[in-house]
Amino acid sequence: GPVIFNVLSGTYNEQMNIPEITGVNSTNTVTFQSATGNYSDVILQYSATGTANNYVINLNGTDFFTFKNMTIRALGTSYGNVITYSNNCTYNTFYHNRLSGVNTANANIVMSVVYSPSGSSVLDSVMTFDGNIIENGSYGMYIYGQGSLANQLENKTVIKNNSFINQYSTCLNMYYQNAPEIISNTFTSNSSYATLTYSIYAAYCDNQLKILKNKITRYNSGYGIYIYYCDGAFGKEALIANNMVSV
């Protein structure tokens, strides 16, 4: 049956590497959540020291997991990934959490708050981030499929109702996605990075990429929304509507 872990209030200095769990499915899900319902009461944190342990939570082939109403933060100085994906995860959700990366002037993927890398073993489907605070880091989210062919695109990533705050390079970076949705988020950046920066960067996102009802404020230079080769080659063309962008 479905399993819920109600986490007692406190600060936990540890990391989680979660593999695929036998028996977990759309009915028998697993949820980790703050027992109080307040994200500030439960803090899961870790200080990574290298590429091998660069995560607070690593979803390693994980399916049908939900993390809810928690603070998850990285404390490393040179490595600061908070959530990482590996080995083809599906149907995982982060809901109303505070995902906190390192306040950095380093434009490197090893400092991404959420990191789904490219590669033949990483094709994550139905990744949902809803109502989270995503703060700091070089990238707020760095999400990358395998390639531009139809069977190499990651499916149905949903990014909605989140607040992206103070990313140094790019708030949301998406490559090789099938039917992704970026809806009703706020993006706020005061980055002083000399190279061009982005709030939303979408490349090779096919079958109707949706960028709707987002509010973007950039206090220095950079792009609000940058779209590259999202041309509907395998489905509908992109839909960009009702966004407010201030640079």
Form type: globular
Largest sheet: 9 strands, parallel
User: How far is the N terminus from the C terminus?
Assistant: 49 Å
List SSEs in N-to-C order. Answer: EEEEEEEEEEEEEEEEEEEEEEEEEEE
Q: What's the gyration radius in Å?
A: 17 Å
Percent helix range: under 10%
**Residue-averaged pLDDT:** 95
Strand composition percent: over 45%
In short:
This protein is mostly beta strands and 247 residues long. The chain has strands at residues 3-7, 10-13, 16-19, 30-34, 42-46, 57-60, 65-68, 71-74, 83-86, 90-95, 98-100, 112-116, 125-130, 133-135, 139-144, 154-155, 158-160, 163-165, 170-178, 181-183, 186-189, 198-206, 210-212, 215-218, 223-228, 239-241, 244-246.
Describe this protein's structure.
- This protein is mainly β and 247 residues long.
- It has no helices and 27 strands.
- The strands form three sheets. The protein has a nine-stranded parallel sheet, with no helix packed on it. A nine-stranded parallel sheet has the order 2-5-8-11-14-18-21-24-27, with no helix packed on it.
- The radius of gyration is 17 Å and the shape is globular.
Describe the SSE topology.
Layout: E1 3-7, E2 10-13, E3 16-19, E4 30-34, E5 42-46, E6 57-60, E7 65-68, E8 71-74, E9 83-86, E10 90-95, E11 98-100, E12 112-116, E13 125-130, E14 133-135, E15 139-144, E16 154-155, E17 158-160, E18 163-165, E19 170-178, E20 181-183, E21 186-189, E22 198-206, E23 210-212, E24 215-218, E25 223-228, E26 239-241, E27 244-246
Parallel strand pairs: 1-4, 2-5, 3-6, 4-7, 5-8, 6-9, 7-10, 8-11, 9-12, 10-13, 11-14, 12-15, 13-17, 14-18, 15-19, 16-19, 17-20, 18-21, 19-22, 20-23, 21-24, 22-25, 23-26, 24-27
